[in-house]
Amino acid sequence: MALAIRDVREHDLDAVLALNNAAGRTILALDAAQLRYFYEHADYFRVAEIDGHLAGFLIAMREGSNYESPNYCWFSTHYPQFVYIDRIVIANAYRRHGLGRIFYCDVNSYAEVRVPLLTCEVFLEPRDDVVVLFHGTYGFQEVGQQRMGESGPQVSLLAKDLPSYAYVRETYLDHGGLPDVPWLAERPRPFNDDSPQRRLAGERHS
Q1: CA 104 to CA 106: how far, in whole Å?
Q2: Which domains can be identified in the chain, with CATH numbers?
Q3: In this predicted structure, what is the pLDDT of residue 193?
């Protein structure tokens, strides 16, 4: 079995949309325009490909984006810097085989050299104890709860401290930026992202 975790490509979007909307009640449905927004704006948008088949994906956003998710907005009002995991979806055929942990290791590696906090939420209605346990064993702690809209589900808002960030900031980010190597690069996007954190990143590399 050949597994690859890579940045999403435009030709993946139809398969990503179908996978998202077949995932069940704990993943909010998307339309093509919403998925296009993620393609153009998400800081982290990677897919898992197994033997040429799309097996899953994870989308995450940094602070400073014009993203109206109520959970993203909650973190924006409480923390100045973070990476927010908006969604992770694994195809039915590849669930319970550790692919979620592989994604979380990968997004953790992305986040810990950029921000002090990795965040997400889990649905409490319906509650999935496997999902709650997964996040607890991966170091997330509850930092709040809220209801998504007047009639939406109750969610638990989770955060994980990234202790490596302090070293990276003091050693690299405060002294010219991250090394110019492929595994530290931001993913390419089809437009000029002028968000504050990316302007700062550009200044650090100049």
Answers
A1: 5
A2: 3-205 (3.40.630.30)
A3: 54
